Amino acid sequence: MRIMLLAGLVGFGLAQAAMAQETSPPVQVMVLGSYHFGNPGLDTNNMQAESVLTPQRQKELERVAQALVKFRPTHVMVEMQSKEPGLAIGEYRRFDAKMLATDANEIVQIGYRVAKLAGLADVQGIDEQPAGDEPDYYPYDKVQATAAKFGQSADLVALNTPVAAWLKKLEASQKTLSIAQMLMINNDPAEIGNDMDSYYGMLPIGDADTQTGADLNAMWYLRNAKIFSKLMHLAKPGAKEPARVLVVYGGGHGFWLRHFAQLTPGYRNVDVLPYLKQAR
Fold first, then answer.
1. Model-level pTM?
2. Angle in degrees, CA 252, 250, 175, rounded to 5
């Protein structure tokens, strides 16, 4: 009886908390998926970005920032790790015109720039990377090895081919498109770079016992879930003035981060495309 009563009280408490979240203003989350301006070359397929430090590109980036700041962000969160209180990025406090003129990274060019325009004291780093004995969040090398073992290498190439072609097309379009227009492609759900076909296509790589393709999907989900979990610790629903979070991240994370923003109770996904259209 005591156990049943305790379970009932716990269930009632959880229900009350859920109701409170439903009636409180939600945290608004706007995800800006970006190609990597600084060409780190760390993805399976990499686009060669032209310099964003030229006068013309800097004007385009300023238009992007002026459009995004209309979202009135209370937080800007980026693809960096932080051990500081509140996951603050110490580098942001040194942000100035010199950094803007010399550091091509989209975190600086968009994240810091927007945060400064919004008058924010801090930018938060919410990235998640494996440390110690933690798992590899993107074990693509293991998927390749498993595909070779089971005669599935051609299947893997077939999955990768349209993504590589899409990136090549995007790379070529830099000659005629502004940065805002490039970012619109990066954030359009109808574009191949924003679907899950290549990920889910890897699910059968291996066999019923060696499910390496499924492992990769699980680990990639885990990384993005941990990223969004950090966001939730920093921006909680129920505040009198609801938080408005701009997330600046690599475009490959866009699907899952928007998924969590759309489906997590107390949070709401805000489409970034209408803002980017203002910067064209």
1. 0.89
2. 95
